[in-house]
Each structure stands twice: as C-alpha cells, then as structure tokens.
Amino acid sequence: MAEPRVVLSAKGLCKDFRGFRAVNEVNIDIREGEIHALIGPNGAGKTTVFNLLSGFLAPTSGDIVFQGRHITRMDPAAIAKLGIVRSFQISSIFPHLSVLDNVKVALQSQTDLPHRFWVSERATSRFDAPALALLTAVGLDPYARGLAVHLSYGRKRALELAISMALEPAVLLLDEPMAGMGAEDVERMTELVRRFASGRTVVLVEHNLSVVSALSNRITVLQRGSVLTEGTYEEVRTNQQVIDAYLGGQEA
Questions:
Q1: Which of 50, 46, 72 is nearest to 59 (CA)?
Q2: Which residues of 47-72 are buried (b: 16+ CB within 10 A; e: fewer)?
Q3: What is the pLDDT of residues 221-241, one digit of tens each?
Q4: Chain segment 152-193, per-residue pLDDT in tens
Q5: DSSP state for residue 80 in the 8-state scheme
Q6: Domains of the chain
Q7: Which of 12, 83, 152, 214 matches a 20 to 30 Å C-alpha distance to 66?
Q8: Nearest 5°: phi and psi at 226?
Q9: pTM for this one?
Q10: Number of helices and strands (H, E) in the chain?
Q11: DSSP assigned state of 60
C-alpha cells in the first residue's frame, strides 16, 4: 500500500532570535489524512515550528511547501486562505457573541459576506442549520443560544474546534488543545479531535503523551530546536535518545 502523499513539507528550517537558534535544520513531511504530532521538552522549538508553518514567523533559512506551492514568505492570512488553519493555545473565540454566532462568523468568512459593510439577519440565517450541525458534532448544541463567555474552559476549546471545522481546513494546526483541561475534558476533547481528524490532516503539539498515543499516526520529537527522531508512538517511546532527553530516563 502506497504512503499518503505529502501535503505540507519543511526542509532545512531554521529560525534565529538575536543570535540564538531556536529552530535548527528541521525537516518535516506532513502526510495527507494523518495526525502528525510534535513533542519535546519545554524550549524544544515546537511552537516556533508552528509559527513558521503558519506564517506568524518568517524563517531565517529553509523552505516550506504546501501542496506543491512555496509558502515560506507568505503572511498568515494568505496561508490561512490556502487552507492551513491554526488553533492557538489560548482560546480565540468571540466571548460576547452567542456560541451559534461564533460558528456562523466562521461559515460567513468562506463566502463574500465578510466583504460587505452591512449584512442583514436574513442573509445570515442560512448559516443557522450548518452552524448548529457543527455544534451538535462537538456536543455544544444545548449551549447554542448562550454567550460564549459563559462556557467552561473545555467547552470553549470544543467551540474553537467547531469553528476550525467550519473553515474546512486542508491542514489544521492544533497547539496544545488539551492545555489546562481536567481529565474528563481531556477525554472528551481527544474523542472530538479523533472524530474531526478522520480523513483530515492535523499537526498537533501536545504535552500529554496519552493523548499523543491515542491520536497520532506519526510523531516528530524535537530537542533544542532540532529533530531528535521521528516515527510511530511505539518507535518513539522505546527510543533511548527520547527516553534520556524527553522523559528523564523513564519510558512513556
């Protein structure tokens, strides 16, 4: 069986900050329809790599290619329009809009409506049903009419996932989606990501190794800005370099 095609690729990626090299000669191939995790100790360069892939930082050197197109120097908005959507560690919802309206805004952004100065409620009502369907998919339909600010932290992250789904990304970059969650929310969010990612391409930064184990097809381990190793979870967890560098001498 042939391997899935590479949709997002970084070659020789480097990033310097005032003489400090945060990312050093990183090579990553993200394959279509897979969940690819980036793990490593604090300061390993995971979020910097995310910022480079999504255009929030420009690399010092190296190249990034998405679906055959060089995107190395493109800005974040242009990259997002191509289909690479980034979810941040801190929830990026509109807190004083309703839960439903948060998703409707994302759906509207895929049409010509955002370019109009004034949009009637009638014009946006066609987004009600698809927005509610997305909320149902993440278990938020009972909260659709309430303000997003009143959601619990875990439910805000679920809303962010529904917003990401509305944007229909070709590649979704998830930056620590389980950060700050209790065990029950982690379990629920893991299942939501698994369902969303079915047949889709996801790049995941996550510290919770049980989540990485449950979700990832492939894992890249970073240490001090460089790739330490890459492989399946089983290959990574038994790699002695990973055990020493990332797990403090203990297996995952």
A1: 72
A2: bbbbbbbbbebebeebebbbbeeebb
A3: 999 999 999 999 999 988 888
A4: 988 998 898 899 888 888 999 998 888 888 888 888 889 988
A5: H
A6: 1-83+169-252 (3.40.50.300), 91-168 (no CATH)
A7: 214
A8: -120, 160
A9: 0.86
A10: 10, 10
A11: S
